[in-house]
Q: What sequence folds into this?
C-alpha cells in the first residue's frame, strides 16, 4: 500500500523505500555539517593569515591623576615606556606662559601653578612617581641660558633596560646626556658645537651631511639598539649609527639607502602642494623619529615628505609609504608655534607599532591633522584613525608624542598650547604582556 502511494507521486519516478530516505536525510545532514565545519576552518585560516584585527581604543579621561606641588604640564615632544611599564614624559618647563605660573612668583600672585620638571615618570594608573630636571640642571642641559627656546630645547627621551634615562636637545650646541632614573648624570655623548654666545643671534645653519663629528643643530631624535649597543640618530637628510657606549661613529645612509657621500647639502625645494609630495630619493627634512620593528627593520619618520621609509639595520632600503599625502609637508605656507598665518606641515611626528606579536600595524602621530593614523605595516595602506582636532578627552591639539605599554595601551603628548598627555585603552587586545621599550 505504501509502495503504491509512493508511485502515485508525480515527481517521484524512482520511488525509494522510507528507510533509505531516512538514511539519505542523515547523510545530507552529515555532509551539511561537515561543509559548515570546513567553511569555518577556512574562515579561521584566512583570519589567521591576515593577522591581528585593527586595534580599537577608548580614551581614559582620568589619566593621569592631578599633579602634586601645584605642577602644571607644558609641551610634551616625546614620551616612552620602560621595562616596568612606567611612562616617562619629557616636559618643556620653559613653554610656560605668565598666566600659568602665578604660584611661581615671590610672593605668589595666584594660587596655581608652577611648571613641572622636565622629566616625569608615571605608572599606568596615572600616579607621578618621580620628577626632576630642567634648565641648568646639568652643564650641557638643552638650550642653556635661553629663557624661551620653544622647540629648540628638550626634545627626545629614551629609557634603557637598566633604567637609565637618555635625553637630547634640539638647540645649537645640544647633544645627548645619560642619567640614572633618579637624575644623576652618567655620560655625555658629546659631538657638540659651541653654543652661540649669550644674547647673540645664532649664525645660519648650513648642511654638511658628510660630517659625522658634530651636530650643529642639536639632536632631535634618536633610538637605542641595546642588543647591538648602537645609538641611531636621524639628522637633516641622514640616519647615523654610533656606538652607544663610546660614541664612536659606525655607519650611516641617506634616503632610499644612498651612501652619505651621495647626499646633497642643498635645501629641499618646495613642491606644488595641490598634489602629493614627490616620491624623491633624498630625505626631505625634518626627520622626526627613528624606531625598530619586531623584525629588526628601521622605521624613519620623514615629516618633510609625509612619508615613512623602512630600512635594514645596515641601511638597505626596504620600502616606503605615504601618510595622508594631501597635507602639505613643506614649503612657504608652513607655520610654527604661535603662527597666525599658517598651520603646521607634515603628517609624521612619531610612531609606534601595534601590540600584536607581529606588529601588523603602525600607529602614527600626526600633529598637523591631529590624529593617530593606523597603517598596515606590510602594505602601507591606511586602515583607521584615532582622535581629531579639539580639546576634549580623546581629541588632540598638536599631538607630537606617542608610546605604548605592555598591554597595548597608548599614551600621547601634545605641544604648542595642547600641553597635556592622554591614555587610550586597547579594547580588543589579546591580554598578553609584550614590553616595547623605546617606542
A:
Amino acid at each position: 500500500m505504501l509502495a503504491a502511494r509512493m508511485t502515485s507521486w508525480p515527481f517521484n519516478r524512482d520511488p525509494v523505500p522510507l528507510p533509505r530516505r531516512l538514511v539519505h536525510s542523515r547523510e545530507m545532514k552529515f555532509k551539511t555539517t561537515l561543509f559548515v565545519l570546513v567553511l569555518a576552518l577556512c574562515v579561521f585560516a584566512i583570519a589567521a593569515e591576515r593577522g591581528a584585527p585593527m586595534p580599537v581604543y577608548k580614551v581614559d579621561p582620568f589619566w593621569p591623576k592631578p599633579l602634586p606641588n601645584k605642577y602644571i604640564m607644558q609641551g610634551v615632544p616625546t614620551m616612552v615606556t620602560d621595562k616596568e611599564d612606567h611612562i616617562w614624559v619629557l616636559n618643556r618647563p620653559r613653554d610656560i606662559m605668565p598666566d600659568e605660573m602665578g604660584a611661581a612668583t615671590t610672593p605668589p600672585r595666584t594660587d596655581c601653578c608652577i611648571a613641572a620638571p622636565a622629566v616625569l615618570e608615571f605608572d599606568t594608573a596615572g600616579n607621578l612617581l618621580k620628577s626632576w630636571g630642567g634648565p641648568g640642571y646639568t652643564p650641557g642641559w638643552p638650550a642653556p641660558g635661553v629663557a624661551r627656546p620653544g622647540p629648540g630645547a628638550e626634545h627626545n627621551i629614551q629609557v634603557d633596560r637598566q633604567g637609565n634615562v637618555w635625553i637630547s636637545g634640539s638647540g645649537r650646541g645640544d647633544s645627548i646626556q645619560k642619567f640614572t632614573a633618579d637624575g644623576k648624570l652618567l655620560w655625555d655623548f658629546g659631538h657638540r658645537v659651541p653654543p652661540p654666545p649669550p644674547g647673540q643671534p645664532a649664525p645660519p645653519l648650513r648642511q654638511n651631511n658628510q660630517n659625522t663629528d658634530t651636530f650643529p643643530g642639536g639632536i632631535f631624535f634618536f633610538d637605542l639598539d641595546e642588543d647591538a649597543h648602537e645609538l641611531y640618530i636621524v639628522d637633516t637628510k641622514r640616519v647615523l649609527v654610533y656606538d652607544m657606549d663610546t660614541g664612536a661613529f659606525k655607519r650611516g645612509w641617506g634616503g632610499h639607502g644612498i651612501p652619505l657621500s651621495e647626499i646633497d647639502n642643498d635645501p629641499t625645494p618646495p613642491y606644488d602642494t595641490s598634489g602629493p609630495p614627490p616620491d624623491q630619493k633624498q630625505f626631505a627634512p625634518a626627520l622626526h623619529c627613528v624606531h625598530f620593528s619586531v623584525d629588526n627593520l628601521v622605521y624613519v619618520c620623514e615629516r618633510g615628505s609625509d612619508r615613512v621609509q623602512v630600512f635594514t639595520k645596515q641601511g638597505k632600503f626596504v620600502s616606503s609609504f605615504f601618510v595622508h599625502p594631501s597635507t602639505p609637508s613643506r614649503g612657504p605656507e608652513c607655520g610654527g608655534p604661535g603662527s597666525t598665518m599658517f598651520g603646521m606641515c607634515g603628517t609624521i611626528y612619531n610612531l609606534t607599532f601595534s601590540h600584536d606579536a607581529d606588529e601588523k600595524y603602525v600607529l602614527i602621530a600626526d600633529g598637523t591633522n591631529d590624529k593617530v593614523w593606523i597603517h598596515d605595516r606590510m602594505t602601507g595602506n591606511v586602515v583607521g584613525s584615532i582622535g581629531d582636532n579639539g580639546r576634549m578627552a580623546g581629541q588632540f591639539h598638536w599631538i607630537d608624542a606617542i608610546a605604548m605599554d605592555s598591554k597595548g595601551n597608548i599614551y600621547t603628548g601634545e605641544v604648542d598650547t595642547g600641553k597635556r598627555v592622554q591614555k587610550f585603552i586597547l579594547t580588543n587586545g589579546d591580554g598578553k604582556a609584550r614590553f616595547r621599550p623605546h617606542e
User: Anything to note?
Assistant: The chain has two domains: 16-50, 56-426.
